[in-house]
């Protein structure tokens, strides 16, 4: 595991709004030791889709990249990081179209729902 110090233009970025919402979701899980795994998988409207899930930090693999936000950790595998490097994860609480927003500088195209992309 490689732990990275977050800088404004590197790795996976997390907005304060997204951080607040993730902390609320983690509290609902009842385990304050969970981290967030972010990655990509084949599929979706544009070829690749984003994935996120809570995970125990002890499940992090040796080659995972870890980004630390005031003690909260985001984990990403190296293959996904090739597509997600520079990603900004935000949260929008609008009644229509709300949820997590992915701003990915590596995406050549995105679908209308914003949950998948192509490179």
Automatic annotation (TrEMBL):
GO terms under biological process: iron-sulfur cluster assembly
Question: Which residue positions does the secretion signal occupy?
Answer: none
Q: Which Gene3D superfamilies match?
A: HesB-like domain
Under PROSITE patterns, the record lists: HESB (PS01152)
Q: Where is the Core domain?
A: 12-115
Tell me where the transmembrane regions lie: none
> A Gene Ontology molecular-function term?
2 iron, 2 sulfur cluster binding
User: Which protein family is named in the record?
Assistant: Belongs to the HesB/IscA family. Ycf83 subfamily.
In its UniProt entry, what is this protein called? Answer: Core domain-containing protein
Q: Which organism is it from?
A: Hyella patelloides LEGE 07179
Taxonomy of the source species: Bacteria, Bacillati, Cyanobacteriota, Cyanophyceae, Pleurocapsales
């Amino acid at each position: 595991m490689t732990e990275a110090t977050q800088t404004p233009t590197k790795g996976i970025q997390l907005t304060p709004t997204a951080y607040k919402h993730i902390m609320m979701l983690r509290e609902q899980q009842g385990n304050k030791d969970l981290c967030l795994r972010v990655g990509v998988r084949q599929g979706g409207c544009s070829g690749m889709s984003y994935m996120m899930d809570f995970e125990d930090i002890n499940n992090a693999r040796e080659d995972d990249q870890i980004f630390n936000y005031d003690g909260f950790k985001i984990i990403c595998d190296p293959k996904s990081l090739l597509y997600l490097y520079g990603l900004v994860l935000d949260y929008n609480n609008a009644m229509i179209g709300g949820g997590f927003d992915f701003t990915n500088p590596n995406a050549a195209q995105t679908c209308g729902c914003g949950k998948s992309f192509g490179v």
